[in-house]
Automatic annotation (TrEMBL):
Signal peptide: none annotated. SMART domains: GIDA_assoc_3 (SM01228). GO terms for biological process: mitochondrial tRNA wobble uridine modification; tRNA methylation. Keywords: FAD, Flavoprotein, tRNA processing. This is Mitochondrial tRNA translation optimization 1.
Length: 651
């Protein structure tokens, strides 16, 4: 399939509200980060007239921190967003300059597709895509507040969002659904050394105080504070690469998108990364600068999944820590030192990095900094990412307490789909933990909440062998097409792949060989003595040493037409026994998952077998399904049985 180039239609972008052709939209998305762009694109693909409002058009698609996409768990999310026709996978294929599959030593279910990105190219691609989507208008502006209708007597306690107001603009803009994706900008404060200033990201003002006030005071949402940070950017030519370890990318780049067979960057154009380590001198500088570092003084632990160098040396003194030197782009003069996020004063930052041998004469282009921001406790959301007590208000991305572009993109897409469903008067939709990592992510957020920035890991998914990066298209594209967020061309491609895989598996199943024949035809495969008299092609492929290509070379008339799917067929065969075992368990859970819990249940009037603690938790969280209730902390199996019986009886 041809790699899609950056699109260049400019007609729908407006820097001025007076250019808008309407004042009323189906969906308004606030924020043009990773969540906002996917939300806006998905809503428009669903057929909703959509407006994306963001502070600065040129920062749409900006990578605030590390220029990379994917990784273990995160790569699964990128593949799933792509399977639902989202943008980030194709953008990654266009902007990637160093591709690798992480975790290759483990099974393919937990491989992590990852790419180092060219910042400029990534932004260009996302902006080009948005410009090409019909029914989507992009407006530069800062949203000052939400328009909120007070609860009606019919629906006491439930507000309704009806639109937005913009800073310095008199007329509001109305919509059926509003998706807030303001990232680290809600009451954002930036920290460098002893200096604190308002900001959502360096160079960008925070969101207006009105927005925070409305969320907390008018809508009564529980809001918490989280922090994160970013490293200084280093001038590439000041680095002594001879003192670092070269880490070349994969020899053959693997695209993220199911629609691409290759990446824009050719094998020989890939840019390498380097690995280096901290020294005792780094620890000394951290200790000496502690009294000058108010970000770390307030919380020495910092975020667990992207900790600062200060937290790392304070928690693990005496250790040497990895620092990856990663390119920021093909033509960029800068390097991103992953692992050196810091908030000490700039002069101390320079001292610190020069304690690392490869950086002994390094120059800093821009210092590292920390950011602290408000997030909305996500247990207040439904599995459609809509605020339970406020109709029409959807939240996605870092505002829900997550960290990372991939987590933001996944939520954004799903919030966009649901915002469109509401606007188009179709019922909300959810994804379950048994069918996708997006389902796992959303379920974790809305059922368990967060106490620190949440990032995806493969260990969070119970059915890892079924939710693989290689089969996201088969799991999600048909569902996305049915919903309306997947284009016909992608759907047709997914169906072609599905049919071919089914035919190939039937051919493999029909190919049976006695053990003696296996030894004769496939001498390198160590078929065990104890095996049944005959083995099918599927069973043979479960042998590590046998590839589909080899099998097809022995039986070309039966298998060679499926060579395009060699890797997928090998993975299908290896995981077939696990998936067969999981199938029953998944069916049981899906039944439970789908049992709808009415939102008006009076948990305090339920039978006495339910504990007071369980009632309070259920009343506060109001899970939408029995499956969601099962996973709430404090809800025992006995409580689930009581609830199940009650709902069955009530129905
Ligand atoms: P963002 O990408 O932040 O986008 C928010 C958008 O909303 C921006 O375009 C902003 O202009 C717009 N906006 C905000 N308020 C308004 C308003 N009122 N009106 C209109 N537009 C508005 N992730 C990691 O995985 N690892 C890391 O180490 C890491 N470190 C980070 C360090 C820093 C300093 C920052 C800022 C982020 C870091 N991240 C890190 C997080 C990563 O950047 C985010 O998770 C991701 O960008 C979140 O996407 P988002 O769409 O939710 O928000």
């Amino acid at each position: 399939m041809k790699l899609q180039p950056v699109r260049t239609i400019h007609s729908l972008v407006s820097r001025c509200i007076s250019h808008l052709s309407r004042q009323c939209y189906d969906v308004i998305v606030v924020g043009g980060g990773h969540a906002g762009t996917e939300a806006a694109a998905a809503a428009a693909r669903m057929g909703a007239e959509t407006l994306l409002v963001t502070q600065k058009i040129h920062t749409i698609g900006a990578l605030s921190c590390n220029p990379s996409l994917g990784g273990v768990g995160k790569g699964h999310l990128v593949r799933e967003v792509d399977a639902l026709d989202g943008l980030c996978g194709r953008a990654g294929d266009w902007a990637g300059i160093n591709f690798s599959i992480l975790n290759r030593s483990k099974g393919p279910a937990v491989w992590g597709p990852r790419a180092q990105l060219d910042r400029q190219r990534y932004r260009e691609f996302i902006q080009g895509e948005l410009r090409s989507i019909s029914r989507l208008t992009v407006l530069e502006g800062s949203v000052e507040d939400l328009l909120v209708a007070e609860p009606s007597p019919d629906e006491p306690g439930s507000h309704r969002v009806t639109g937005i107001s913009l800073e310095n603009v008199l007329n509001p803009i109305t919509a059926s659904s509003v998706v807030l994706t303001t990232g680290t900008f809600l009451s954002g404060s930036i920290f460098v050394g002893q200096t604190t200033s308002p900001g959502g990201r360096i160079g960008d003002a925070p969101s207006s105080a009105g927005l925070s006030h409305t969320l907390k005071e008018r809508l009564g949402l529980r809001v918490g504070r989280l922090r994160t940070g970013t490293p200084p950017r280093i001038v590439k030519e000041s680095v002594d690469f001879a003192l670092a370890e070269l880490h070349p990318p994969d020899r053959r780049p693997t695209p993220f998108s199911f629609m691409n067979t290759h990446t824009r960057c050719k094998v020989e154009e890939q840019v390498p990364c380097y690995l280096t380590y901290t020294t005792p001198g780094v620890e000394r500088v951290v200790q000496e600068s502690l009294h000058l570092n108010c970000h770390i003084q307030q919380d020495t632990k910092g975020p667990r999944y992207c900790p600062s160098i200060e937290s790392r040396v304070l928690r693990f003194p005496g250790r040497s820590h990895q620092v990856w030197l990663e390119p920021e782009g093909v033509t960029s003069d800068l390097l991103y030192p992953q692992g050196l996020s810091m908030t000490m004063p700039p002069e101390m930052q320079l001292r610190l990095i020069r304690e690392i041998p490869a950086l002994h004469r390094a120059e800093i282009h821009s210092p590292g900094y920390g950011v602290q921001y408000d997030y909305v406790c996500p247990t207040q959301l439904s599995s459609a990412l809509q605020v339970k007590t406020t109709q029409g208000l959807f939240l996605a991305g870092q505002i829900n307490g997550t960290t990372g572009y991939e987590e933001a993109a996944a939520q954004g897409l799903w919030a966009g789909v649901n915002a469109a469903c509401r606007a188009l008067s179709t019922p909300p939709v959810s994804l379950s933990r048994t069918e996708s990592y997006i389902g796992v992510l959303i379920d974790d957020l809305v059922c368990r909440g967060v106490t620190e920035p949440y990032r995806m890991f493969t260990s969070r998914a119970e059915f890892r062998t079924a939710l693989r990066p290689d089969n996201a298209d088969l799991r999600l594209t048909p569902k996305g097409y049915e919903l309306g967020c997947v284009s016909p061309s992608r759907y047709q491609e997914a169906m072609r792949v599905q049919r071919s895989l089914q035919d190939a598996m039937a051919a493999l199943q029909a190919l049976t060989l006695s053990t003696a024949r296996c030894r004769e035809k496939l001498p390198d495969v160590r078929v065990s003595e104890s095996k049944n008299a005959a083995l099918t092609g599927m069973e043979l492929l479960q042998y590590k040493e046998l590839s589909f290509e080899t099998l097809a070379s022995v039986f070309p008339e039966r298998l060679s037409s499926y060579l395009e799917f060699s890797q997928r067929l090998k993975i299908e065969a290896v995981y077939k026994p696990h998936c067969d075992i999981n199938k029953k368990e998944i069916e049981r859970i899906q039944k439970e998952e789908n049992m709808f819990l009415p939102q008006d249940i009076d948990y305090f009037s339920l039978p006495a077998s339910l504990s007071q603690e369980a009632r309070e938790i259920l009343d506060r969280v109001r899970p939408t399904t029995l499956g969601a209730a099962t996973r709430l902390e404090g809800i025992t199996p006995a409580a689930v049985v009581s609830l199940y019986n009650y709902v069955q009886f009530a129905e």
